[in-house]
Amino acid sequence: MIKKGITRQIVLHYFFVVFLALLLVEFVFMLAVQRYYYESIYNTISTHISNSKDFFEPIARENTTEDGNNLSRLLVNLALSNTELEILDLNGRVLASSTAFESDRAVLQTSDIMQALNGDMGRWIGRQPGTGESVMAVSHKFDLGGENTYVIRYLTSLEDVNSKLLNMGLLAAAVGVGVLAIVLIISIGMANSIVRPINNITAVSAQMARGRLDVRVKGNYKHELGELASTLNFMAHEIVRSNQIKDDFISSISHELRTPLTSIKGWSETLDSGGYDPEETRIGMGIISKETERLIGLVEEMLDFSKLQQNQMKLVKGTVNIREIVQETMLNVWAKAEQKQVHLKLETDETRAYNVHGDGNRLKQVFLNVVDNAIKFSHENSWIFLSVKEENGQIIAAVQDTGIGISEEHLIKVRDRFFQVNHQNGGTGLGLAITQELVELHEGTITMQSELGSGTTVTVTLPAVAEEMGPEESVTQSGDTAVPEERAASDTKSDLEKS
């Protein structure tokens, strides 16, 4: 007995389908064979009747004699081997029979006689009264002239034919049982070929669920099972990679937080000890203030990412001029660019308004992050080109640098959360992930093209608006849509230092 499970279901389904197909085929086959045999018998008798009628009726009409002689001649001339010949009057009473039955038999009223009286070749299949034997009767009317009109009825047994049909049916049933047995064996093997890989995949999945992410599904499985195994292995690989990225992030953010905290603690203790002139005190307070701002930036970046992940990012949307946003961004990073001797150049049409419907502070955060990264990874005395243009109802803002670039391997991962190409550059690895989420909240797209050693081009595409929008409205992220919400006071502050 096959235990419950997929194997049993597959075997039963195959078995049931094949069983029904065999049953239908054998039923149709037996009907066709039976019809063939019965039609052969009928055609033999009906042909004999037709030939006899064509030959005997003209002769009988020319030599009409008394009734008894006519009946005797009919019995002799119309006889057919392996059949009983009966001569009936028009009322269905048997006048004579080749088996010498008495003529006072009951009146016959089978359908073949009725058809014969109507001038057709009548046929009837049924049980012979008294004996219960299966027979076929074929009848036709003979007109010998005058009042000498009779119904000629041939009666033949179907027992031999039915016996042969029964043997043939038993043979077909035996063949069907053999076919079902073969199907059962094949379906069990086929089911096992499917279930065995599934059991293997299930076992590996259970190990992964218990934390064994180093295990993999082994085996060269085909079709959907192969895709399932590959997907599971890929999932495990991605979980391991995500865990590694998370661990790197924790290590990196711990270092990022510890460095300013150490400076703040050191200068706080130094200033607390007293004895310093105002200049040293001013320097110490400046360092404390700068490191505090750095801490605030790191914490706010992590808070922004948390809000985006929980669909709680609030947007204050209105009509925003992207050219002005880019110009303000350049002013904010000008000092940092000057310090590294990096030159910024904006290429745009000053006479046009490149308006979009969005949150100006959040869009500024997008461009601050992109331009800050361009400066961070550019060489000294290099150029960064910024451009804003409109094409096909889209505002396209691009930032192109000639810096170190990104390899193709890292380019597909650089927008993943916590990912950093070089952990020594500091940061949380969340900047580009947050940037992409913010752009998508504005129904836009961000693309990156880069070549290692040749620089990077980041392109932000946003839907343009043709007319001035109404008053600003506060909206909050909810999946892929934004719904109105009262603006919180904490969201009015623009963080220009965020990267």
Question: Please, could you describe this protein's structure?
Answer:
The protein is an alpha+beta fold. The chain has three domains: 158 residues, Beta-Lactamase (2-Layer Sandwich), CATH 3.30.450; 78 residues, Helix Hairpins; 179 residues, Heat Shock Protein 90 (2-Layer Sandwich). Strands 2-1-5-4-3 form a five-stranded antiparallel sheet, sandwiched between helices. A five-stranded mixed sheet has the order 7-9-10-12-11, with helices on one face. β1 and β2 form a beta hairpin.
Which terms summarize this structure?
52% helix; Beta-Lactamase; 499 residues; 5-stranded antiparallel sheet; Heat Shock Protein 90; 5-stranded mixed sheet; Helix Hairpins; disordered C terminus; 3 domains
Topology:
Blueprint (H helix, E strand, L loop, with lengths): L5 H57 L4 H11 L6 E5 L5 E4 L13 H7 L4 E6 L6 E10 L5 E9 L1 H51 L13 H51 L4 H32 L4 E8 H18 L3 E5 L7 E4 L1 H17 L6 E9 L2 E8 L6 H4 L19 H11 L3 E7 L3 E9 L9 E6 L2 E4 L15
Parallel strand pairs: 7-9
Antiparallel strand pairs: 1-2, 1-5, 3-4, 4-5, 6-8, 6-13, 9-10, 10-12, 11-12, 13-14
Helix pairs in contact: 1-4, 4-5, 5-6, 6-10, 7-8, 8-10
- Uncertain stretches of 5 or more adjacent residues: 469-499
Helix and strand element order: HHEEHEEEHHHEHEEHEEHHEEEE
Q: What overall form do the CA principal axes indicate?
A: rod-shaped
Compute the average pLDDT.
Answer: 79
Specify the CATH class of the largest domain.
Alpha Beta
Helix count, DSSP H or I runs of 4 or more residues: 10
